Amino acid sequence: MTRTKSILTEAKQIERAVTLINLGARLQVLESETDLSYERLLRLYKEVSGKSPSKGQLPFSTDWFMTWQPNIHASLFMNIHEYLNKVAEMDEIDTVIKAYQLYQEQTQAQGLEALLSVTRAWRLVKFVDNGMLTLTECNKCGGRFVTHPHEIAKHYTCGLCNPPARAGKGKAAGGIQMH
Ligand SMILES: [Zn+2]
């Protein structure tokens, strides 16, 4: 299966940008994923969201993804993303968008707050692409979780099977299933 990079019409680019803005993406994501000019994107952002984009740096560290609850959310998203990558032929950013929408549906269905923002989800895919993070199988439940690449699978137990002592077992994770 070859993945040809589609030549996007301007209308398609605007549609993509609007979808990302509605999902709460930061302006930097739009700049990176469309060919629209900064001025154009800024106007679009204000029109669609009704506010100015927040300034400041994107989160560049992998630390957040390693904390307990965020890790479970990030892993859920990555499992969906990997699945879509296998079954659907889409541009990379469209896979992120679709996977994020499915992630939101899953958390909503379970009455959970979507801890993972679309901007973080987008960063996460980049971290996995460049090998800074990976998915490792839990030695207890067999689910695949976001870890550092040097994690030894044999010794790895996920945050659902081994929640921190302060957390009620399975409670704060909201019964998220990784299968
Ligand atoms: Zn586990």
TrEMBL record:
Q: Give the UniProt record's GO annotations in the biological process aspect.
A: bacterial-type flagellum organization; positive regulation of DNA-templated transcription; regulation of bacterial-type flagellum assembly
InterPro entries reported in the protein's UniProt record: FlhC
Binding annotation for Zn(2+):
C138, C141, C158, C161
**Cofactor binding remark:** Binds 1 zinc ion per subunit.
Keyword field contains Cell inner membrane:
no
Subcellular location(s) of the protein: Cytoplasm
The entry's keywords? Activator, Bacterial flagellum biogenesis, Cytoplasm, DNA-binding, Metal-binding, Transcription, Transcription regulation, Zinc
Q: Does the keyword Ribosomal protein apply?
A: no
Could you say which cofactors this protein requires? Zn(2+)
**Might you report a single GO cellular component term?**
cytoplasm
Among the Pfam families in the record, one is FlhC
**GO MF assignments:** DNA binding; zinc ion binding
* Quaternary assembly: Heterohexamer composed of two FlhC and four FlhD subunits. Each FlhC binds a FlhD dimer, forming a heterotrimer, and a hexamer assembles by dimerization of two heterotrimers.
Outline what the protein does: Functions in complex with FlhD as a master transcriptional regulator that regulates transcription of several flagellar and non-flagellar operons by binding to their promoter region. Activates expression of class 2 flagellar genes, including fliA, which is a flagellum-specific sigma factor that turns on the class 3 genes. Also regulates genes whose products function in a variety of physiological pathways.
Q: Which family does it belong to?
A: Belongs to the FlhC family.
Protein name (record): Flagellar transcriptional regulator FlhC
Organism name: Piscinibacter gummiphilus
